[in-house]
Amino acid sequence: MIRSVIMFCAEGVVQDAQTNNISAFNIFQRLASPAFPLFIQKFYVFNLLEREDSDPAIIDCRIVITNNEIELFSFPARIDFRNSNLTRSIGTIVGLSITNPGTLTFTFYMGSTSLASYIIKVDNTNPPQGTIENTNP
Prior knowledge:
By secondary structure, the chain is an all-beta fold. The chain has a single domain, classed as Immunoglobulin-like (Sandwich). 0% of the residues lie in helices and 66% in strands. It has strands at 3-15, 22-27, 30-33, 38-50, 58-67, 70-80, 86-98, 102-110, 113-124. The chain has a five-stranded mixed sheet, with no helix packed on it. Strands 2-1-4-7 form a four-stranded antiparallel sheet, with no helix packed on it. Strand 1 and strand 2 (22-27) form a beta hairpin. It is elongated, with a radius of gyration of 19 Å.
């Protein structure tokens, strides 16, 4: 049975060319904005998947992004284990517009089966405030 070991969304996910290790920075746990829609220019969806020997090596999946259970975006994800029982999937999302505060959910589907979900709380905050201080040169 194919399963997700870990899934998250982050501002950056990179794979080191020499060590093959994954590094992530600015993992999204909570987002906040004084106005909506909230636009996120670019971010990544990481998923570590595991399979048994009897499972297929290549699977067709789909990542679905919802805001308060309303679908914002979805895209296909072909997963190739390449003769291994573990594989990493790094999806790049460019230009996501979050329409309302509430929950932002990323679900990784294989057919109609949900392999993993990652939920980010989206808050409506107070408008920004600013002050000016005058000084002599």
